[in-house]
Amino acid sequence: MISKTIEGFLCPLQGFRIILSSPKNIVYSIIPFLIGFLIVGLGYFAASEYLNTWVGSWTESSTFLQNWDLLKSILDVFLIIVGWILVSLLNFLAGYLCIIIFAGPFYALMVENIFKVELPDKKPRSDFRLIIGMFFIGILKAALFLMIGIFCFLLTFVPVVNFLAPLILTLTVAFDCADYAFEVDFLKLRERFAFFRQNFWNFFGLSLAILATGLLPGSFFILLPVFICGATKMYIQLQSEIV
Prior knowledge:
By secondary structure, the chain is mostly helical. Helix content is about 85%, strand content about 0%. Helix 1 (about 1-20) packs across helix 8. It starts with a helix and ends with a helix.
């Protein structure tokens, strides 16, 4: 259990080596990052333009706070802090959803390129079919991830079990990172969940690595290709052990 968790936690290091070993993988990893960076950047720009103004106008228009300047100042600071926290959460969600839908095909091509190197005898599907397929799958995954994200957000307000929220969210992301390999390898939905259950501790280790990126805001979008490549390498290794 511990060894598998460590393997999963360290698999992104293999992802780094895989990306740097191929110019194609570098290109496929940069394009999705630029898409996510653009969405997140626009979100923060809009918040910087309107958030402080909106909070100030709301407290100024409140008749209850007219004679309470100190309370109004404290409330301004509190609402701005809460507002930026919500903006960060919404930016992460919006950026990740856009990456899933619009950048997913690029990640799929990156994963297929890894399969061609690691398993040269395996017959891949055409790039066009893969791109179209991953685009529509990305829409379905985005809807599912949105529901899970809302559930985890609500779970954070429940005492005792609120610590499960980040674990559920990062395990979902870890599964999604491997889902590109599942798709390229023609796994059915039941087979994908079966593989996840059988190798849960590897995915748990990967989820811890993903969770660690939360300590540095924005690093997740930079490292997402690394996690996907690492998950793909982990999948190929685990499948070879079964065979």
